[in-house]
Amino acid sequence: CCAGLRNLLQGLSFSAKYYSKHNPPQTMCPYSKIEPKQCHILYCSKSICTHRTAPPGSILPCRFFSCKEGTEVLSKRKQNTSIVTSDLLHKKLLKSEQENWNDISPTYKAMTKRIKEKLEELHNMYALNSGSPRMRFGENVYFEENGCIFLAKADDDEGNADILFSIEDLGCSDAFIQRIRISPDQRYMAISLKSENSEEATCVIMKLGNLPVVEKVIPSVFSFEWAANDVLYYTTQKNLKCQNVFMSTFTYQKHTKLVYTEQDARFFVDLYCTKDRRFLTINSNSKTTSEVWLVDCRHPFESPALVQARTTGVIYHVEHRKDQLYILTTYGEPAEYKAILTHNYIHRINLATYCRPYRKSKLMKAPVASSGKENWQLVYALEKKTKLVDFEMFSDDCVMFLKNAGHLYLNVISFVSHSVQSIKLPTWACEFELESHLEHTTSTCYFQLSSPVHPPKRFAYSFKENNLIEQAVQEVPIITNCHTTRLLAKSKDETLVPITVFHNKNSKELHRRPLLVHVYGAYGIDLNMSFKEEKLMLIEEGWILAYCHVRGGGEQGLHWHRDGCQHNKLKGLHDLRACIMLLHELGFSQPKYTALAAASAGGVLAGALCNTDPALTRAMVLQAPFLDVLNTMMKTHLPLTIEEQEEWGNPLEDEKCMKYIKSYCPYQNIQPQCYPSVFITAYENDERVPLTGILQYVQKLRKAALDHASRTSKKGNWIPNIILDVQANGSHCDASWEHSLNE
Predict the structure, then answer these.
(1) 279 - beta bridge partners?
(2) Mean pLDDT, to the nearest integer, of 714-722?
(3) Which long-range contacts (CB under 8 A, 24 or more apart) does 328-333 make?
(4) Which burial class, exposed, middle or buried, applies to 238 when counting CB atoms under 10 A from its CB (0-12, 13-18, 19+)?
(5) 316-321 sheet: strands from edge to edge
(6) Per the similarity annotation, which family is this (predicted)?
(7) What are phi and psi of 615, to 5 degrees?
(8) Which residue has the higher pLDDT, 566 or 238?
(9) CATH at 728
(10) What is the pLDDT of residue 383?
(11) Helix axes 691-711, 76-104, angle to 10 degrees
């Protein structure tokens, strides 16, 4: 069985690509009964393509948005010629950049060695001592460490834990465990495995017992939940989309069937079980609208029931308690939201945004039998400018993880006493990570807090004692020499933009210290501020770290995102400029010691600032950056273009939109001038941000910098370093510790 699994996974090259990339491999799992789907309802008449329309959320084959409706299709000969020419140009540019990298990289050999040794030391000191999240299930505790899944007794020493699963035994050393789900009777365990070279995941079903065995392997899976002891629901991915839901059974008459198909390309489907396991929810979300279907876990073979039909602008998420649905929603008066990531953060188009869509500020309830929004009753509303970061339902309480003015705290709503208790959290905390609580009757809520320079610390909140307890799994050194400052910068339109600053308390003459500025500003997603060893290393070496929470991100709610997307994208650029200028005015470094860091969609604002204000920074470091918005949004054959129109606009149908995108698009606005140095890391097989666009950007930027240098004859004229490191392995901003260490 293991040999067969190993061959399968190696044959897939772990084509499991975490959020969906290109077409999944056609190799079918030997254990699976899933038949290949017929997914073609794209109709062509002569050279015009149209799409058949179908009701949203119906069980029909998924549509391919291969081309814009009514758009002429190129003849096959023209298409082939264009593809060959483009492919040759791509290979030529790639070879040139690889040769350039091979020539330059030895220059940094000594520095690389020193940094790598320091990072490994910090990793061993902090990350390995912080412990991994635990899943409590009755008397059992499940946890993952070093590619293994362990089972221990809650009151026993984890040194006596049993190994249930090991990646090494499968012969897949490049994979890591992404998600774990235990069946209600603990007889089965579903695991998703992902490799850093792909974005889809492979789901492995284990039958537990004295000798755990592989029951089934399902390729190209995004999310999965147990509806009953032997009934698993899961979603599949294709072309960066997740639109089909399947159900598989594992005892008696084993079978798999299609349960739900989403027809709208803007929507992404994810599964979630309510905390009391009464319902499995099928959540279909776009960036602005959602729809939820309920599967009764007592009757998992019955058809899903609709909670509330999708209504433009209304996003909601469902929990259950005592025959009442508790609904987090934007319905009603203007609401704030936070786009939550249930997995490691992904960038340019964040499919994880759709997993548990906490873009809400109201908790409402309705009877299960009459769940339409006309029956929704308000339970609790958040204060203005308060962000809901995460949410967890228990039998008698509801815990809300909140953010206000950059500070994190808890609100505990008691359904018994009808009271709300507010608990402040440490001022250094910037990120939450809620641990999985498999039983809703537990009396304690466990979570971890961290910041870019503070490793995760485990905390527990006791409902009975009404207190917060810091828990040390092992002795973790306390960071005492780092100072955290929160600032507000006034943007061009007088809007106040938050900045979080970290620096060493012992640093003197801060205006002479190097400054690393971070920015993102897209999709309503906050800057990632979880712990990173390299950030702590920089603090120890005297650097200043600044995180600019500009518009377009989610730091201040729904309006903060709306004020920085589509026709408001320039506001994010104005915010970034104001933030850096304020930092310099307050004595945090100066332009010649300032570097700007961004990843994925953050590359839009970073690249735009590089064009408009090149003198503000000395260097720019980008990871898998999105740099050519205009050309990308003009290509409807790309899998993400349709759904991303809600973020960037539709330049194909709106001339004003096209001109507006062109006004800030980094690639379109390169000109001969003195640019800062630029270091870009890209991935050869990245399909979220195609490598071709990055190659063309680097070529154009380097030419502009050289043109400027040749036109000026100043003594000591400075020519920036423009370096591109193309990683043959790895996927979009998502790497293992070892790979990220090498980067």
Answers:
(1) 296
(2) 78
(3) 328/358, 328/360, 328/362, 328/363, 328/364, 328/388, 328/391, 329/360, 329/362, 329/364, 329/376, 330/359, 330/360, 330/361, 330/362, 330/558, 331/362, 331/364, 331/373, 331/376, 332/362, 332/378
(4) buried
(5) 316-321, 324-329, 362-367, 377-381
(6) Belongs to the peptidase S9A family.
(7) -80, -10
(8) 566
(9) 3.40.50.1820
(10) 80
(11) 60
**Number of domains within the chain:** 2
Taking residues 550-575, what's their average pLDDT? Answer: 92
The Cα–Cα gap between 723 and 621 comes to 10
Query: What range defines the domain where residue 488 resides?
Result: 479-742
Residues in CB range of 644: below 8 A, 6 or more apart:
349, 633
Distances (CA, A) of 649 to 176, 223, 624, 642, 661: 36, 29, 22, 10, 8
CB of 633 within 8 A of CB of 553? no
CATH number for position 243:
2.130.10.120
Where among 229, 261, 293 does a domain terminate? 261
pLDDT digits (tens, 9 = 90+) for 194-253: 877 777 889 999 999 888 999 999 999 999 999 999 999 999 998 888 999 999 999 877
Rounded distance, CA 216 to CA 214, Å? 6
Least confident of 321-325, 448-452, 578-582, 734-738: 734-738
Question: Which residue in the block uniquely carries the two structure tokens 């089934």?
Answer: 216
Helix axes 655-664, 569-585, angle to 10 degrees: 20
Q: What's the CA gap between 647 and 579, in Å, rounded? A: 23
Q: Is 730 left (phi over 0), alpha (psi -120 to 50) or beta?
A: left
Name the residue with higher pLDDT: 383 or 179.
179
- Residue 554's pLDDT band, with cuts at 50, 70 and 90, is confident
Q: Tell me the whole-structure pTM to 2 decimals.
A: 0.80
Question: What is the distance between the alpha carbons of residues 118 and 124, in angstroms, rounded to a whole number?
Answer: 10
Q: How far apart are CA 494 and CA 210, in angstroms?
A: 65
Q: Which of 492, 500, 480 is nearest to 588 (CA)?
A: 500
Triad 469, 422, 331: Cα angle to 5°: 125
Mean pLDDT of 308-322: 92
Average pLDDT over every residue of 429-453: 84
In a domain, 292, yes or no: no
At 619-637, the pLDDT tens digits run 999 999 999 999 999 988 8
Q: Provide φ and ψ at 31, rounded to 5°.
A: -95, -10
CB environment 451-462: b (16+ within 10 A), e (fewer):
bbbbbbbbbebe
End-to-end CA distance of the chain: 36
User: Any idea which residues carry the catalytic annotation?
Assistant: 600, 686, 732
Task: Decide if 456 is inside a domain.
Answer: no
pLDDT, mean over the chain: 81
Q: To which H or E segment does residue 306 belong? A: strand 305-308
Domain boundary among 241, 261, 281: 261
Angle, helix 569-585 to helix 602-612, in steps of 10 degrees: 70
* Selected residue with higher pLDDT from 706 and 8: 706
The mean per-residue pLDDT over the stretch 445-457 comes to 90
Tokens of 620: 């720019």
Residue 608 placed within a domain = yes
pLDDT reported for residue 56: 39
Residue with tokens 């380097």: 702
Alpha helices in 472-625 (DSSP H): 533-540, 558-562, 569-585, 602-612
Predicted confidence (pLDDT) at residue 493 exceeds the cutoff of 60: yes
